[in-house]
Amino acid sequence: MSEEKQIRVLVSKVGLDGHDKGVQLVASILRDAGMEVIYTGLRRTPDQCINTAVQEDVDVIGLSILSGAHLTIASKMINLMKKNNIQDKIFVIGGVIPDEDIPKLKDMGVNAVFTQSSNNEDMVQFIRDAV
Amino acid sequence: MKLSKNIKNSDIATAAKLITIIENDRAQAANIIKDIFLHTGNAYIIGVTGSPGVGKSTLVGEMVNIFRSQNLSVGVIAVDSSSPFSGGAILGDRIRMQKHESDSTGVFVRSMATRGNLGGLAKATRDAAYIMDAMGRDIIIIETVGVGQVELDIVRLAYTSVVVLAPGMGDDIQAMKAGIMEIGDIFVVNKADHPGADDAEREIKYMLHIGMRKSGWEPEIIKTIASKGTGIKEFVEKINKHKKYLEDNNLKEKKKYGQDQLIKLIKEKLELQIIKKKKNKKIIKQIVEKIVKKEKKPYSAAEDVLKKLGLNK
Lengths: 131, 313
What we know:
The complex is a heterodimer of chains A (131) and B (313). Chain A is an alpha/beta fold and 131 residues long. Chain A has a single domain, classed as Rossmann fold (3-Layer(aba) Sandwich), CATH 3.40.50.280. Helices cover 43% and strands 19% of the residues of chain A. Chain A is built from five helices and five strands, in the order E-H-E-H-E-H-E-H-E-H. In chain A, helix 2 crosses helix 3 and helix 3 (70-83) runs parallel beside helix 4. The two termini of chain A are 20 Å apart. In chain B, 43% of the residues are buried. Chain B has two domains: 42-256, P-loop containing nucleotide triphosphate hydrolases (Rossmann fold); 261-308, no CATH class. Helices cover 44% and strands 14% of the residues of chain B. In chain B, strands 4-2-5-1-6-7-8 form a seven-stranded parallel beta sheet, with helices on both faces. In chain B, strand 7 (186-189), helix 7 and strand 8 form a beta-alpha-beta unit. Chain B is of the alpha/beta class and 313 residues long. Chains A and B meet through helix 1, strand 2 and helix 2 of A and helix 1, strand 3 and strand 4 of B. Strand 2 (36-39) of chain A pairs parallel with strand 3 of chain B, so a sheet runs across the interface.
């Protein structure tokens, strides 16, 4: 195996949102793109995600949010990332996100937002470029 | 990175970064381990192995509960296999350890992909365990890849090796006898509420009986239902019993470090020096072509390569 850096991605679901087919699909896509994906399962809190991101020393934190609470969750995550000194990690959100909210999320500091119309290659390429 | 000097006082974030370095850069790993090796040897390392789906991660999560209730700090290294095709991996052992995700200082869980290494562990697993040990974790639990036959490396890393089985795999026990039946210090029959648990227990006893072990430790068998937390306390007591046995008989360090590790490191170093060098890769490629054309025979070709690299006396 090569000695070059392996990209590690945390993939998680925060809050009361039980739909995990999408996040599992994303996890498989990233794995097939050669990344190591740490999947936490459902109903995590932002605190737990941050804790996991620190322990696993991931390069990317990816949250799948279908509940509509993306603005609240994103702002909590950004604050916690700053507090824990991990704002250098790439933070991306995927899910059902209304177009008008995407600029708001990016203003907060979310690096990228992927929706149902995004395609796999773009997502993979974004992560590769960003890391 | 000068982090390793104060490893003893380092926090999880620092240790996590060190583990990333040793995973990605085996040459730097040597420097890091040089700095911290003398600080290791205080943590008690437990290995958990067994086929996929027997409940290893759930069991580990429950073990962590018990150790945390005794106020011991815990490190967990959960190893999963990398895809041999893409090199990627899905590391999902944390799903079964969710209880501890808020216990940010007491429990340090690190998921690790094998990155092509065989034997049930990643190349960096031992070094990651050294880091967790040196940073002062009381207990380190290492969960191997679930394969069933080949994850034997754990026996040289853990003081106590636990083999987890589930009912309904009687034939699997037969298949597993070479190797895995010999490494278990403790056998756990998990999912003991499923039919066939007693049969599984009997089967293990039988296999152990005919195995004729050399060491003095008589392997223990225990039934658990990890998803309900049943039998876990008794299981941890058996781990402690084994620990005491090792300590009383002065076997602890011997168990963890054998000649095979040193040989492994030598191999790894040689591989880095020989096979990964561009010039050498070229030589090897040329000779392979000769074998393909039947101009050379494999064994003598290997010797030729060594000669060309100046390693054959």
